[in-house]
Write a structure and sequence with these properties.
By secondary structure, the protein is an alpha/beta fold. It is 45% helix and 12% strand. A hairpin with a 2-residue loop joins strand 4 and strand 5. 36% of the residues are buried.
């Protein structure tokens, strides 16, 4: 059985995007662009996307990854997934000019990049990536034609990109849960345990538990150090 084929003969899809309307549109349109395909899941959570993609029970054949996820970077999420697995080709998608993300997406291990609004290109890219191929980056779709460096971007297969990025695992941070990330985010803004507990209607001890777990995962000695480590990773 081809690694990129689902057991029932179809291609399974998943999508990560912080815009609910976009996720709904992708669910409605994408199966029509790739007949026989179906969605396993969609999410606006980078951590959920990583966990689901690494789990063989929820791993899609193709993952559509939005490049702009609010506070989080689609590039970072893509790299975290590709450094850990050669499975699940990743197709980067964006509403912005492709040249803004193309090189970074290729370096992060994606198999191509396409505009969300270009349906013919999206259909072609889905077929190529689902078959284990890569999308040729067309410098006519966005990059400045005067910039020769933009024409040199090459996307690798999932297997090749994984072999390259697997060596970076020692530099990658452990995955935090969504709640652990949220606690660090709010604490970085000056919130106290007590204030968070009051606003979230949970006990301060629960907030402390999330914070201490984040500290342990990040190898930090203090909460302040954990916040600093997390913030530096998010901005990388």
């Amino acid at each position: 059985m081809n690694e990129h084929e689902h057991h029932d003969g179809g291609t399974t899809l998943a999508a990560v995007d912080n815009d609910a309307m976009t996720l709904m549109a992708l669910q409605a349109i994408t199966p029509k662009l790739l007949p026989g395909s179906r969605f396993l899941w969609t999410t606006d959570s980078p951590n959920t996307a990583v966990r689901n993609t690494l789990n063989p029970m929820t791993r899609p054949n193709v993952l559509l990854m939005d490049m702009s996820l609010g506070r989080d970077s689609g590039i970072t999420v893509c790299r975290r997934i590709r450094s850990r697995t050669p499975h699940t080709p990743i197709l980067a998608v964006t509403s912005f000019p492709l040249h803004l993300y193309a090189r970074s997406a290729a370096e992060a291990g994606a198999q191509g990049i396409v505009s969300k609004s270009d349906m013919p290109a999206l259909a072609k890219a889905l077929r190529l990536v689902a078959d284990g191929g890569t999308v040729t980056y067309d410098d006519g779709t966005g990059p400045d034609p005067m910039s020769a460096s933009d024409t040199e971007i090459t996307f690798e297969t999932a297997e090749t990109a994984h072999r390259r990025l697997a060596t970076d695992l020692s530099q990658d941070l452990p995955l935090l849960t969504d709640k652990e990330i949220e606690v660090l985010e709010m604490m970085s803004r000056g919130y106290t345990f007590e204030r968070l507990a009051k606003e979230w209607h949970i006990s301060s001890s629960t907030i402390r538990t999330h914070a201490h777990r984040a500290e342990k995962k990040l190898g930090a000695a203090t909460l302040a150090q954990a916040i600093a480590i997390w913030m530096s990773e998010e901005r990388a």
